[in-house]
Amino acid sequence: MGRGKIVIRRIDNSTSRQVTFSKRRNGLLKKAKELAILCDAEVGVMIFSSTGKLYDFSSTSMKTIIDRYNKAKEDHHQPGNPTSEVKFWQREAAMLRQQLQSLQENHRQMMGEELSGLNVKELQNLENQLEMSLRGVRMKKGNLIHQENIDLYKKVNLIRQENMELYEKVYGTRDVNEANRIPLLTEDLGMREESHGLGMEQGMSMKQIDLQLSQPQQQNYEPPARTTKLGLRVAKCILMETYSCNQMYKYSSYYLRKLIEGKRNNAN
Asked: Quick one: signal sequence residues (predicted)?
């Protein structure tokens, strides 16, 4: 069942009256605070209990609100009076000076100065404000660092891509040139053998080396030691002159096979 309608009249029971006063006082002060925050209004509330105890709330300063109230009342009762207008601007300047003083005091307190006049609750509120401000600063700093890291990562990827393209241009061209150079070196090898005329002894040694590599099963054939050494030295010089060391094994069989075919053609 819903609550019945409360009759608005004085509560006779003192205990019930005190309980109702406490509840409604807290509700009124809470609503006044919410109104000041939500609507950016300058609110001042003063409550005196039946025992004469004062309860108040002010969004800025109670004295400032009272002065503003008195000024507004005077302006309302005396419109267009030059003296009243002068007093209005004097009060306005005084109020602005007071607000400036209050802001300066809050600023010094935020900087950790002039804290001797604050109680525990006020210090706790000041600490909460500082923590909120610090969290905001840290969040902003973290966002900036994160954005800088993203930009730096993009720059690194761009530089890496440029390096890869440059590497492909340089080393890709070199690989193509080396591939085109292989048949030329093969022809040059035969031309050197014919033009220089290595002699019968060197020719025999090269033929003996070729036969040994192509027919390893003929173990009973033993070439002379001097001819074998000379042939090995010539073959080694040719291979070292034709290839780089890291490609010697790859192309050695190819050139030896060409030598064997050339020798056989000459023999025929």
From this structure: none
- Residue 54: beta bridge partners? 48
pTM over 0.70: no
Stated as kind and residue range, the H or E segment containing 51 is none
Q: Which two tokens stand for residue 110?
A: 């935020």
* Residue 186: inside a domain: no
Cross-strand bridge partners of residue 48: 54
By C-alpha distance, which of 212, 215, 192 is closest to 262?
192
pLDDT one-digit tens code per residue, 5-49: 777 888 888 888 889 999 999 999 999 999 988 988 899 999 998
pLDDT per position as a tens digit, 149-206: 999 999 999 998 988 888 888 877 655 555 555 444 444 545 444 444 444 444 444 4
Q: Are residues 24 and 103 in the same domain?
A: no
| Distance of alpha carbon 97 from the chain centroid | 45
The CA–CA distances, whole Å, from 88 to 50, 75, 80, 114, 229 equal 36, 8, 11, 33, 120
| 26 and 74 share one domain | yes
Q: Strand, helix or coil at 1?
A: coil
**Number of domains composing the chain:** 3
For residue 116, the Cα-to-chain-centroid distance in whole angstroms is 43
Domain extent at residue 26: 14-78
Are residues 244 and 142 part of one domain?
yes
